[in-house]
Amino acid sequence: MTPEQLHKRNLKVALARRSQPRSSLALRTPVDVARTVIATQSDSAPSVLDRLDRTRRLKAILSESTGTYDELKPVFGTDLTTATEQIEVARQELRLIAGTDTARLDAARTVAEGLSAVAAADTRALISGVQALDTALREGADDIISEGVLFDKAARKIRGTDGAAWTDAYGHIERVAVAGISTLGTPVLDFLDALSVSAGIDVSLYLRAGTGPRIRERLDSRVGVSAERDSSSLSNTQWDIQTPTCPVTELPAATRHEECRAVAALVDGLLTDGNTARDIALVARDADEYERPLTRAMSVYGRHLSVWSQLELKRTLPYRLAVTTCEVLDTLSEGTVDIDQLFRPLTVHWTPPSGSIDAPLSAADLSGLRRQLADGEARSVASWLEHIREKSGDTTAPIRHLVAFLNWCQNQPTRPDSEDVSSVLTPLIDAFDRNVLPPVVSNDGPDYTDVSRTARAVERVAGKTDGDHLIRETGAKYDDWLEQGSVSPSWGGVRDVLDALATVRPGRREHKNAERIDVLDATDTWLRSYPYVIALGLVDGVWPQRTHGAFPAEFRAAVVTGDAPPARRLGVRGAWTEDREYDHFADMVRTASDHLVVTRFREDVDGVSYQRSPLLDTLDPTLLGDDARRRLCSESSGVPAPLPGATPESDSHVGDRQ
Amino acid sequence: MSERIPQLEGAQARIREAFLGHETGLFVLSCTAGFGKSTTAERIAAEVLCTGAHAGTPHPEDRLAVVSFSRDDAASIEPGLDTVLTAFADETVPTERSLDDATANRLQRGLRQSDYIGTIDSVLRSVFEDVATEVGFDEMPTVGNEALLASLRRDCLEELRENSEYAPLFERLEGAYADGDSTQVDDLLEAGRKAKRDRRLSEDAFSDQLTDTVDDVYPDGPPSTLTEIRDDIRRSYNEAAADTFEPAETPEATVRRDQECYEQWKSCITAFTSLVIAYERVYDSICRDRGVVAHGDVAYWIAAFFGTDSEWRPATDHAIDEEIRERARQRHARHFDTLVIDEAQDISVVQHDALAALVPDDARVLLAGDTNQCIYGWRNAQPALFAQVFETGRYFHRDWTVHKREQAAKTYRMRPDITAAVDTVFSDVFTDPERGAVETLDTDYQLVTTDRDASETPSVQVAGYHANGVPGSEQWFETGEADTLATYLHSAIATGEFADQESSEAVTVLFARRSNMDTLERKLQDRGLSVANASQQLFATPLVELVCAIVDWLVDPFDPERTRALFDDEACAFLRATPSEDSPLENSPQETFAKHGYQLEAVPDENAFSPAVRAVIDGLRALATRQARHASDPGALVLEDIIETLELATDPLELVEDNEHCLAITDALLDHVGEWEGTDRYTIEELSAVFNEYRREPKNGPPVPALNTADYDVVFRTIYNMKGDEASTVCLADLSKPVGAFGPHGQTFIAHGQTLALAPPETEARIQVERTGQGDRTESTPLRWTANRWVDDHLAGAPSLRAAGAAHRADNWRLLYVAMTRARNHLVLSLPRERAGGAQAPRNSWVGTLHQALELERAPPRGTYERRVQRADGETTVTVGVNDVPLDPPTVRPPSRPVPRAAAPAAPVQTRRTPRFISGSILAPLAAEFDRYWLPYLQGRALHTERAEPDETLELPFDAVGPDCLGTIAHDVLTTAIREDVATETLRRCTGPLQEALGVSLARRAGTVGAVELEAIEKFVSDTLCPQFATTETWTRLRESDPVFIEEAVDALIDIGGTTIETQNHVDIVSVAPDGTWHVDDLKIILTMPDDTMHQRHNSQIALYVWALGQQLSHDGDIEGTRTYLGQETQTHQLPLSDEALRRQLGRLRSR
């Protein structure tokens, strides 16, 4: 079991690299396994609330139960409904550290007693208030409210059947390995403990360099010593970071942009030197933060990136098409629409789902139409058609396109049901796929950057393959919310659901072109190997990031430190400690086989200084000075020593030490 | 190893001892520039941590707040504390409590996590996050985005103007002050709102203060006689002025008009006050709606929410819960157990009050400051607060029982001669109530001692020029000062005049304002010197202005009016440039476009423009067609598109002086827009609106970051920008502007020091005390408003207005003090050789004062002279150099910095295309027609090749279910047969588990299709496919094989032209026959006879499977691949597989 989706992929790649068969290996996430255990017992897959539904229900509970949760107000403020997201984080944190077990919750309260008065009061209120909310959430829901509860339920099934529930689902499984974990939440731990004790399965935990020692040290305190549990049955192996086996170079730059330019120059140098894209990985704590400046820097060299990041759906044409169309339909259902709003779907390439028009309106045509028709008035469809007849002497192609759009709008239901979501919107995206994407292909550069992004967005919005598809999900969610009365039957309602779902971005993934340079989140380097790794942003506050959480900092610190026995009974959320940052760092360091380059910047755009990452204290890199970096980034120069790819002549430049 | 930390001594040591010796109290350190007050403050703060750790306090860093006023100062606090803690741990600096490495490290990590170390704005912002929803915001608002705030303010005022209640008041003010210009009144109201808020004045107090000023101007009320007017002149000017006063009209008319002025003035104040109050309410309301506030608002809301005065409680739609308020206060108060405020003289009233509400009574507070360095009076800094606390021990609205103070006049920065020069100037200025002795500590100026050694060469030098024109005018600088100064700096740099141990530092040239920077920059560059301007405003750079113009155009680039506006834009002069005489072109680009009615698509693109202009126009055309993309991209991406399409990083229009600077500008623009947008998205219209705000007022926007300044010969900075910093060589330029310039006499609304005043209506005749000079506001002598005129030994005017004038001038004198005290080794003053009176009299002029203080009239034309001065340790001499550099300096070669690759045009695309993943089913089509199938490959779709329609004899309707789905259903059933090891008869009849599997599969994959189609599929699978499979050799073999793997993942890595790609295969069946041979089987449901292409595709698929399986098995050669066709007919092919053919095919998986 690997909690991270990409860890599963990396494991597959590692096996392929070693030419090892996977026949004897079932790769699953812990959630999948718990779900299967329950499904096998109840003959149907359990339904688990997603985060969107959970926060909506929390909000409803908070707004309906006046006074019930007042103890949370000193922590979150007078209007608890505005703090629903934070309250949900607190709820998850409480479940993660203590689960639902009374003794653990008492331990958390005991930890709180040792804090300053205000932190103790805040913590007590959180534990009590969030606990009550959690109960209300469970009582009011037909579904399982969270993955934590799913684990609880699976553990109970296994314990209640003396392991038969496990055997029924996974009788063929001989042992379980849980790998790549930085956070071992209490519900998961309970579930694994049930496997170990009641199902008699050997469970091995493969821990990580930073978080591993604490998880290991607390295992006995957290699960309790049990007569049935062999102390070795929940065993673990821990990696410690080792001195890198390859040379390490540190490359500081003034700004993030300069840092990216240095990295781009280095990558270009490596590729020019005969390496392939697959020999190089760029790694950042959050690849997202580096996507734009790196892309810009690389394009100067005609090179391209494969950033393993989520698609920013809201910033894509297919999404904008769906949303702007909903907005026009919604406005029209109220009466009239102005020209600015009317033209928005056309601007993002609305084409009719059927008929002879097979190309979008050009920007010039739209501009011409606007000048011809704009008079500041908002109109109904009929009135727009009438206005067009009056204003336009001849029936030009742009006019026909606009009329087609108006007619199409007129033919759509004004109070859509859930079926309408797909039947109205999917054909629009299909038409986009048919009429717009091919020109994008022909207009795109040889690197197919636009095509890749737009094609991926088409798939995400209205794909035909298995996976998460926005319109399909929107239809289902809209149906649920209509039934609950939490959304009105309108295109505005559909738009809200689209918006809410598009915010929840699906998982990271690689670009399908193998000739692009991989840019990975550090956590995704787990089990990967590249000859050259360039790690960016080794800056305090960026990597490691600042710790954060919904519980008071004092409480978090007390739990993390674990000085008192009650604290050691509790789990630790990854974001509460910098140890998780070290996990990522250690994985990144291990990923490099030939040379590791670590880069950083010194100040941001506001002139605020940034310090060198303390994580670098564990390495002993050779420092590259500003002059050498400037030569690296210059028009003519090659790669200076001691960077990988440096020619022997460059040795004369060594010595730029700061 | 730790850095060297200086030992504390004298006042530094005493304040440390006092602070650490008390558990609670107020400690004030007032000290001169270069004293090391930041060092002292950091050292004390670090010791507090050390003591806390030793006492077992779990996280002592949580009980410490260290704040400073400016961002640069604040940025150095945390590194400073870090360094001291390391020094403690290394024992290179003694501390009362020892500190081990682990504890030091823990404290350092904790400090980096702290929200309470930084600027006062950033600390208050952290507090506000807890409070924002309590004071009516939906969530934490955006803080300090001036562009958003500017449009918000405009919208607020527009809303008020449309309100019938307020419209007459606007008319009143616009008539009285703005000659109908609404923007002037807008600016007045915003200034009023800000002054009221920053001073935390109630509505009544605000109104009273404005009225008090009128009463101060008319101490006896409106005059009844000319004699009473003369009395007022006597009070405001002097006896002589009163006696010689000649009214411009008859006495009666003069008196009547002055009475009217009084009445109208009060009436305007009433209107103004009403509008400011109404504006403030609307402003707060819209701030809440839009989620945006100014930094000052944050402090205001915190002070209001936590303050004890109920009058200040913010108006919200719910009552404030005392428990919530108290808990929030406690939550933050603990972080202020120890509070250190650096640059404390710059704190404003509202910031003071916000902190006062949070600091606990038993806190220990250290204030370190210097009223002589307060230069933010115009930003409502209140040095009087610091002066008061030093004298009285009252601060944060309480009298501190423990109040310890230290005053020090020692510098660790400046060389002795610089210190002496500073003393010589400011021992007069800061003791003169008409110059700097305003709102300062109630002590004489203390002569400063220095810790530095003297140098053999002069530390104080004068670049003496011959003045020309009006002091402070552009002409004065350009024709008199700039050349001499440029030559002086050129010569000094070329001859190593400033060279010493710190010679790698650039010479820092300080300006009070930016207006003449460009002139000097040009002249220095003409002499081969490289100049970095560290005070340039981003939105005032030609490059960014061009981008702004283009963004505005991109709102509708095909609208001829917008295109015309682009060509008319100031930033697009290159589009209006007339071709040179030797150019083959006849028209300017604008003329060419004008001929075509500014229709972008109508202008021919060949040979009508110069290459550079053509490249820009081609770029604009390309950008215009990307409207759809721009409608979905965030603003930062649109900007990137503009920058890349027009290759602006290469500076094609030569708008920026050097490549690195050009990159810094484009980087900064992208970063700022990205930061403003956050996770939101600016539409192009919104982006344009924001840009227009900043373009209108660049000073509200960000500066261009000055990077790598050590690479330049000279760095320009404003004095404000330099505050808190120091440099080896500092040159003060452009010093001749009179100190009274831009003073309150030119303003309609004054908020300075303790004075709030609105000018009398401009429509009312103002009595001029003197008849000459009328018409020039700086020279005019109004009786009822502030005058920039000396009378005897003081400024003319009523006491409150005079105080405002003096406070403004004091700010300017302090600015000179800050400028002079930045230098460590060399201070260069750009001064006129001639001493002049009038505007350059010492009381009016920096230049005059410096001239007098240095006795410059004794200076030789070139060389050095000595000035005797009084020092703290006795009288001494200062050697002053005057133009003491060669007149004919050696040529300076501009440094040869390599040209950044990013400043050159982008290389052609180098990235080819190779699939990262390959599976058996896509191998053949992708290898055969790579470009055709690349898009569906990217989309993860099946790569369908053309295939014939299904054979009609099969009688499959395929209304809803396609052939692929049918294949999947059949596959489910047939693999069940293998997995369950059913009897052949069971397979033939499709009974038992197969019938069940068929039902499940149909329900799962074709649950929604009609009954007829469903029945047809069911029949086809059970009656055709199952019996067919039962007859195959494959089935027979599989029944005998063991083990048998179904849907087996057989993956391997393949090298294609040096690029490693992954296979992602799911093989139908992998098995081991009794003879030990491994078999790979692929079952295909065919609905029409496959042609050669299809055969080849299937063969490739199995070849890849066999190859991949071969990688996993330890032996070679005995893997067989078999393709079994079912459906239209039954065929089993054991395939002859060629590794070479597979390799050939794999080799084609790459773009050509």
Your description of this structure?
- The complex is a heterodimer of chains A (658) and B (1152).
- Chain A has 658 residues and is an alpha/beta fold.
- A seven-stranded parallel β-sheet of chain A has the order 6-7-5-8-9-4-10. A three-stranded parallel β-sheet of chain A has the order 1-2-3, covered by helices on one side.
- In chain A, α11 links the parallel β2 and β3.
- The C terminus of chain A is likely disordered.
- Chain B is an alpha/beta fold and 1152 residues long.
- Helix content of chain B is 45%, strand content 13%.
- An eight-stranded mixed β-sheet of chain B has the order 15-16-14-17-22-13-24-23, with helices on both faces.
- The radius of gyration of chain B is 41 Å and the shape is elongated.
- The chains are: A alpha/beta (658), B alpha/beta (1152).
- At the A-B interface, α1, α4, α7, α12 and α13 of A face α3, α4, α5, α15 and α25 of B.
Form type of chain A: globular
Query: Major sheet of chain B: order of its strands?
Result: 15-16-14-17-22-13-24-23
The major β-sheet of chain B equals:
8 strands, mixed
Helix content of chain B: 40-55%
The chain-level mean pLDDT of chain A equals 90
The end-to-end distance of chain B, rounded to whole angstroms, is 57 Å
Structural class of chain A: alpha/beta
Strand composition percent of chain A: 5-15%
Average pLDDT of chain B works out at 89
Rounded to the nearest angstrom, the distance between the terminal CA atoms of chain A is 45 Å
The helix content of chain A is 40-55%
Rg measurement of chain A, Å? 28 Å
| Largest sheet geometry of chain A | 7 strands, parallel
By secondary-structure content and strand pairing, the structural class of chain B works out as alpha/beta
- Can you tell me the residue ranges of chain B where pLDDT is under 50 for at least 5 consecutive residues? none
